[in-house]
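Re: [ENG-882] Designed sequences occasionally contain unexpected residues at chain ends

Forwarding the minimal case from QA. Structure tokens:
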């Protein structure tokens, strides 16, 4: 519950057709099980108190009467329990029969939501028994109390910000204009679907697609509970395929015919953040809604949800490879347009033998191939200085030769020494001036060389460096097109690895493998015994942590305490809590302090859902205060 996590359960009990007393007993047993697992929203299938497959037995008054009685028994079983429960049954009102979701809490029936869309096609003939539900809620007497009855009912949790639940029933999801759309536009962050969806070949995939797309389109959590064993198999078979999704991602689902309860941790804070971010989410419908309050105890949710260490990198290898190909294409086609517009035929890239410049060079090669330009028009410039090691120098040269581009070496040591003399910098003082003078000299060389050749300077800096401000202002910070500006460091590595695995050239693949194995470094301080002495991640922290922080701060809108909580889960056994907190504080401090560098970034393509362009996704003042974020981080 804290940090917005709500554990939901979709439960498929093994029922008996037309036996409400037995079914109520089973439902109560499964409720206890779900309570024990910490579920706060518990959804059962459509018509599960009687069974969906009763056929014309639905016309029997005895069945309806017992179903109603047993609903009150189940409601009583929720007394003192800390959960909102939705269960299905047939309900007669005004001489008409309705397929209803009854929503229960703390011993009471809060509301009755009838099915809005009654299917009478193919294997379905619900129109023979049931009437379409009324939208506008009316009062209905049940067990001596009046409860609202209608599709337009929402259940608001008074003490959990953002938690509002709406209901759909099976077919309601499959139609062109589901009632869930109105529910979400009126503030529902979780949609419960009570379903009795029978199995046919391939239907499970379509069902999953519907649930995923509904949760994505409505920016909500979606809890789908379907009928299973116990339903009549006279003509149909029900597989109990239960799903819980959020924002287009399936958090958990059961296998068909497993008869299992599925649990998922829905993040209502993230749903709220996403809706705030998406300005086109929509306006509330011009319809009357009844809002029914309930309350839940505030406590930590024992999370079953997992958080990958690298949110920018797909875990599945086939998906990752597909993603790498797509990203390389986005980068290359972005650069291609710039060349077509400018008419330039030459590219100038500073190559260091490191990951970022390697990726930029690979992208430029792909671009020139698309344009059918001679690769020799790509000038790969190596600029040895005080911190250059033999390893990175050799890799830069081998990479240029392996790709068939023009290699040019420009030694900048003497130029930097002259500059030190001009500004009065002691060469033995290895301070920030010592480092940045080298970076700016390199950029000056590249810019002037590009002018002389009539070409463009291709930027190499990545998104992780931009987030931390780990770039020399008007040094490597500047270029004529930054192809890596939308790629986080953790993803850069996989893009280079993908190229190595697919290039089909053994020598090139070997060079790329060694680049991947080289410590990340700007190489601005002298090496020790020929080995890199300046390791970036020793200074600013591990990039895998910073990329994680960046994703959950910007993409998900998590505050520092929540970022810290999920980071501890994701990196358990890899980093201790103290280390995670240390670098989290560094992240927030640098992210706010260094915005001025991002405010004047060169053009570069957006790659994923997180971007730092001042013209696009991050329109942030350069002098915004980090006080709120740092204060919360200090409390952890």
């Amino acid at each position: 519950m804290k940090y917005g996590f709500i554990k939901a359960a979709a439960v498929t009990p093994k029922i008996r057709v037309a036996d409400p007393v037995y079914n109520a007993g089973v439902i109560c047993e499964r409720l206890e099980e779900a309570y024990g697992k910490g579920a706060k929203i518990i959804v059962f299938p459509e018509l599960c108190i009687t069974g969906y497959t009763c056929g014309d037995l639905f016309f029997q008054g005895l069945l309806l009467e017992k179903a109603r009685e047993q609903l009150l028994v189940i409601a009583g079983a929720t007394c003192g329990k800390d959960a909102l429960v939705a269960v299905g049954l047939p309900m007669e009102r005004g001489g008409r029969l309705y397929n209803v979701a009854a929503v229960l809490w703390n011993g009471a029936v809060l509301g009755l939501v009838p099915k809005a869309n009654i299917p009478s096609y193919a294997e379905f003939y619900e129109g023979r028994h049931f009437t379409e539900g009324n939208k506008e809620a009316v009062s209905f007497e049940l067990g001596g109390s009046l409860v609202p009855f209608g599709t337009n009912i929402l259940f608001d949790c008074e003490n959990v910000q953002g938690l509002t639940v709406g209901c759909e029933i099976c077919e309601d999801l499959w139609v062109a204009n589901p009632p869930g759309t109105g529910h979400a536009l009126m503030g529902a962050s979780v949609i419960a679907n009570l379903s009795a969806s029978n199995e046919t070949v391939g239907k499970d995939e379509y069902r999953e697609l519907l649930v995923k797309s509904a949760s994505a389109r409505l920016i909500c959590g979606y809890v789908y509970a379907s009928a299973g064993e116990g339903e009549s198999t006279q003509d149909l078979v029900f597989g109990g395929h239960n799903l819980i999704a959020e924002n287009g991602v399936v958090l958990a689902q059961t296998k068909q015919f497993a008869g299992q309860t599925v649990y998922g941790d829905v993040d209502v804070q993230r749903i709220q953040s996403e809706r705030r971010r998406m300005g086109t989410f929509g306006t509330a419908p011009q319809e009357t809604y009844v809002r029914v309050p309930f309350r839940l105890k505030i406590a930590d949710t024992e999370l079953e949800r997992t958080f990958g260490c690298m949110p920018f990198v797909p875990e599945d290898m086939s998906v990752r490879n597909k993603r790498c190909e797509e990203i390389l294409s986005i980068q290359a086609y972005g650069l291609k347009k710039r060349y077509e517009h400018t008419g330039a035929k030459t590219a100038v890239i500073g190559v260091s033998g490191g990951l970022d410049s390697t990726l930029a060079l690979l992208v430029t090669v792909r671009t020139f191939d698309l344009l059918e330009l001679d690769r020799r028009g790509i000038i790969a410039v190596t600029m040895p200085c005080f911190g250059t090691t033999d390893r990175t120098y050799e890799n830069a040269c081998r990479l240029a030769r392996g790709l068939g581009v023009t290699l040019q070496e420009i030694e900048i040591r003497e130029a930097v020494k002259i500059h030190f003399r001009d500004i009065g910098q002691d060469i033995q003082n290895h301070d920030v001036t010592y480092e940045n003078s080298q970076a700016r000299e390199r950029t000056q060389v590249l810019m002037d060389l590009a002018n002389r050749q009539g070409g463009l300077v291709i930027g190499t800096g990545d998104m992780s460096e931009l987030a931390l401000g780990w770039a020399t202002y008007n040094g490597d910070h500047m270029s004529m097109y930054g192809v890596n500006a939308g790629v986080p460091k953790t993803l850069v590595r996989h893009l280079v690895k993908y190229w190595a695995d697919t290039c089909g050239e053994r020598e090139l693949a070997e060079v790329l493998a060694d680049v991947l194995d080289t410590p990340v470094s700007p190489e601005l301080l002298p090496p020790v015994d020929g080995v890199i002495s300046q390791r970036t991640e020793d200074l600013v922290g591990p990039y895998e942590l910073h990329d994680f922080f960046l994703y959950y701060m910007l993409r998900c809108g998590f505050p520092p305490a929540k970022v810290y909580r999920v980071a501890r889960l994701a990196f358990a056994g890899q980093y201790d809590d103290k280390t995670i907190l240390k670098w989290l504080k560094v992240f927030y401090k640098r992210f706010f302090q260094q915005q001025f560098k991002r405010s004047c970034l060169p053009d570069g393509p957006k790659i994923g859902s997180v971007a730092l362009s001042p013209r696009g996704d991050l329109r942030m003042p350069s002098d915004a205060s980090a006080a709120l974020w740092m204060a919360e981080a200090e409390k952890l």
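QA comment: On inspection the terminal residues look reasonable. The chain has two domains: 2-294, 317-635. Proposing we downgrade this to a documentation issue.
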